[in-house]
Amino acid sequence: MLVGAAEDERVASGVTAVIFTEPAVASIAIHGGAPGVRDTALLEPEMTVPAIDAVVLSGGSAFGLDAMGGAMAYLAGIGRGFPVRSFRIPIVPGAILNDLINGGDKGWGRRPPFWELGFAAAASATKSFALGSAGAGHGAMLYDLKGGLGSTSAVTTRGFLVGALVAVNAMGRATRGPCPHFWAAPYERGNEFGGLGAPEKELASALELKIKGIEPSNTTIGIVATDAPLSKAQMKRVAIMAQDGIALALRPAHAPTDGDVVFAATTGRAATAPDLRDLTEIGMLAAECLARAIARGVYEATSLKNSVAPPCWRDLYGASLSRNGRR
Amino acid sequence: MLVGAAEDERVASGVTAVIFTEPAVASIAIHGGAPGVRDTALLEPEMTVPAIDAVVLSGGSAFGLDAMGGAMAYLAGIGRGFPVRSFRIPIVPGAILNDLINGGDKGWGRRPPFWELGFAAAASATKSFALGSAGAGHGAMLYDLKGGLGSTSAVTTRGFLVGALVAVNAMGRATRGPCPHFWAAPYERGNEFGGLGAPEKELASALELKIKGIEPSNTTIGIVATDAPLSKAQMKRVAIMAQDGIALALRPAHAPTDGDVVFAATTGRAATAPDLRDLTEIGMLAAECLARAIARGVYEATSLKNSVAPPCWRDLYGASLSRNGRR
Q1: Of all helices (H) and strands (E), which one includes residue A73?
Q2: What's the ipTM?
Q3: Amino acid B219: pLDDT
Q4: Contact between B67 and B58 (Cβ < 8 Å)
Q5: A293, A288, A285: which is closest to A193 by C-alpha?
Q6: How far is B242 from chain A (nearest CA, A)?
Q7: How far apart are CA B270 and CA A171, in angstroms?
Q8: Using CB atoms, which residue from B244, B254, B281 is nearest to A253?
Q9: Hey, which of A199, B90, B148, B213 has its CA 20 to 30 A from B20?
């Protein structure tokens, strides 16, 4: 599995492409009320296409749905795709987040930049990739902090791999009020998002509802992946369970104007056949990886250079890391 | 809204009926992998029946789907129901949890007891009702603690009421490992489930996966309710958001052999028209009410008098309440 990114700093947006080196069995869960997706109907278990070549996450709101086309064109050029007679059709579902109102210059004229960003993201895919204000996370924002791209992984007790990649552009907060402590803290591993744990004393304002506004300018879009040989229907279960990670890390979650979408894909490369307990653990860890990835995306973000976007976690709270001697 | 309960101590199972004094606009979200439901297809927004008369939660696994019939018969007898020519058809969707293996005597012969329990639960409905090992929570169990029936409520910033009622029979734990501290603690109000907050030091075992087993003998079934005049489609959004409460309170959640089902209903009695922000807050509070209700159901449970069911929270941890001077 390779990950590529492309950003346009003037536009303050970007694209992340996850490329499967072999077609991957995949499904989706859409729990937000305002999703923007492309070519996702085929991910339902009763649909025929057996596997996909890539997943693309893009900024740009629905204009960003061009990005999957760019990634398709790149993949077709290297011979990837579902064979239909003489054609090869790269199967590239994807989802967008709305970063239109983040202060970047969205006056792109006749042709939005997302198709080319999608092509560039796919073409740049490698095993290592940047977190924070990269790819689809480049222009992302939360209520009070800069959003970003996060990723984490875990291993089940029987050795199946689980990982998550997410672009966080949530309506509300990833922290327990105006403080550095992430909602996802109970699931943190190492100091992957600062190691600050829970606050010593909960802020009285922790449970206030603070949101950007009610326009559909919010979305957390992500992908969880495993190596367990699971069916498309089982990957749908993993996607549904993984959506819980959004609830564990963000408040509110799955709101009417959130476009929260989670893809779930498997390389199927593990030698062991997973049983129902394995599937349960994979789904649970997928949720917790996604929750951790959300916190990490916010933690790793850097600020946009304009007056509209909120500050990044590090600018506001970076000092608390050294104070606590955690880094 | 009235709530009734009926239990059979020998069988170690029971039924909870939620009766709407006027038909309520309602929908459903099914996020578990092994649900048992009756007459729920009509709850989808595109279906025609505009409102329902009651929701029934029952023990007994799929045998418990008789209970809705008993509640229907009671309601028909008092003249309730959807008019079709000369008939009145009480609309009573419901869901079950599997308490078959809790040590109760399930040798009921030719006729399972759930139809009569459903009738009795509906007939007993009043404004006040018992929590803990009552109604559908009577025979419920978690991995290491007795389960039960819980309920909580909240009010949005603009004054809409939100409440939750849930029967907790989860696969895993409601606590952060083998300790009295509930996962739902960040959302607790007052000392509704002991007021113990988070543990001072997280147990190393907090994130171990501990489950009853992998048979489909697990389920958290609940209903959230509001007084906001919302459409059936909007109540579907509330149900989807409310499902997050299961993730906030139980680990694992929404597993392949969980039957997690959440109904969402509204009396529509509030005078104010809710906007999207209100809907967002209602859904968020529905999730948090459901999470709190789950913890409270476990907290209020009393033990079953047999050797199979796990101990109740109070028998194991009740002493920690006085130690902390919280009650």
Answers
A1: helix A67-77
A2: 0.93
A3: 92
A4: yes
A5: A293
A6: 9
A7: 26
A8: B244
A9: B148
Cβ contact B247–A287 (<8 Å): yes
A221 pLDDT higher than 90: yes
pTM of the predicted structure, to 2 decimals: 0.95
Question: How far is CA A259 from each of CA A167, A216, A266, rounded to the nearest angstrom?
Answer: 12, 8, 23
The token pair that represents A90 in the structure block: 């790269």
**CA A151 – CA A153 distance, rounded (Å):** 7
Shortest CA distance to B99 belongs to which of B130, B141, B63, B131?
A: B141
pLDDT band at B119 (very low <50, low <70, confident <90, very high): very high
Helices (H) and strands (E) in chain B, counts: 5, 11
* CB within 8 Å of A55: residues ≥ 6 apart: A17, A18, A26, A92, A93, A94, A223, A263, A265
From chain A, the residues in CB contact with B281 under 8 A are 209, 252
**How many angstroms separate the CA atoms of B221 and B259, rounded?**
8
Q: How many CA atoms lie within 13 A of B241 on its CB side?
A: 34
Nearest by CB to residue B33, choosing from A237, A255, A277, is A237
Residue at token pair 């993201």: A121
β-bridge mates for residue B83, sequence order: B88
Contact A160, A228 (CB under 8 A): yes
- When pLDDT is averaged across residues A11-31 and rounded to a whole number, the result is 98
Do A149 and A131 meet the contact criterion of CB atoms below 8 Å apart? yes
Which amino acid appears at position A257 of this protein? T
Residue A89: other Cβ atoms inside 10 A:
15
Would you list the DSSP string of A238-283?
A: HHHHHHHHHHHH-BS-S-TTB--EEEEEE----SSPP-HHHHHHHH
Q: Is B301 on the interface with A (CB under 8 A)?
A: no
Q: Quickly tell me which residue has 């902390």 as its tokens.
A: B324
**pLDDT, tens digit (0-9, with 9 covering 90-100), for A130-163:** 999 999 999 999 999 999 999 999 999 999 999 9
Question: What are the pLDDT digits (tens) for B179-220?
Answer: 999 999 999 999 999 999 999 888 989 999 999 988 877 899
Give how far the C-alpha of residue B241 lies from the chain's centroid of Cα atoms, to the nearest Å: 15
State whether residue A130 sits within 8 Å of chain B by CB. Answer: no
- Position B164, amino acid: A
Please list, in sequence order, all residues whose beta carbon lies within 8 angstroms of the beta carbon of residue B72, skipping any fewer than 6 positions away.
B89, B90, B92
